Amino acid sequence: MEKQSAKKARTAPASRERGPGCTYYGLLLYNHIEDLHASDDDEAAVVVRCNRRSAVTLEKAMPFRVLLHRDGASMFLLLNGGDVLAGRSLSLVCMGPRPTGNAEVKYKMEVKKRNDPGALVLWSSGAAPFVRRLKDFQARGFLFVPSSYWDSSDSVSVTVHLTDGW
Predict the structure, then answer these.
(1) Is residue 114 situated within a structural domain?
(2) Is residue 6 a part of any domain in this protein?
(3) What is the DSSP string of 83-130?
(4) Is 90 exceeded by the pLDDT of residue 70?
(5) Helix residue ranges per DSSP H, the chain
């Protein structure tokens, strides 16, 4: 049975997608992340649903957060770039499987400053680009989050809303 699962994962449409620094691929990658990394709030992965808002805690030290879709196959990365002065750049990419046809997975992400209800809500929206490898990836669009929005534990809450493309 295990051999069949491995063969199925190798032949699945998402079979060439690997996680950053990971030897798992395709459905094996999704299952590995779901089984070992999505069980605890402190882990690097969370499960999200289409057309529902999901709050994700992101720490400055985390280069990315994995978002697993409830469809059992789709994976997204919330990238945490430290390449912007006086803040961080957040962007969302789809790691697989590639949407069929001309379908795009659209998203909206929001960041609110904790403990300051009067602060502006920062947001960004667009289509999540499909990415096979993060090496050399340059986001065309991102949400700039100033250093002042990160709390005393160097974390921020990001609300992600995936829409369309399913």
Answers:
(1) yes
(2) no
(3) -STTEEEEEEEEEESPPSTT---EEEEEE--TT-TTSPPEEEEEEPPB
(4) no
(5) 2-11, 26-37
d(CA 162, CA 85): 28
In single-letter form, the type of residue at position 68 comes to: L
Residue 78 lies in a domain: yes
Dihedral in degrees, nearest 10, Cα atoms 9, 11, 12, 17: 80
Mean pLDDT of the chain: 76
Q: Give the other-Cβ count within 10 Å of 3's Cβ.
A: 7
As a whole number, mean pLDDT of residues 67-95 equals: 85
User: Distance between CA 69 and CA 48 in Å, rounded?
Assistant: 5
* Domain range for 99: 45-163
**Strands of 53-59's sheet in order across:** 53-59, 155-163, 106-111, 122-127
3-state secondary structure of 77: strand
pTM: 0.73
What is the H or E stretch that residue 141 is in?
none
At 82-122, the pLDDT tens digits run 878 899 999 999 887 777 777 788 999 999 998 888 999 99
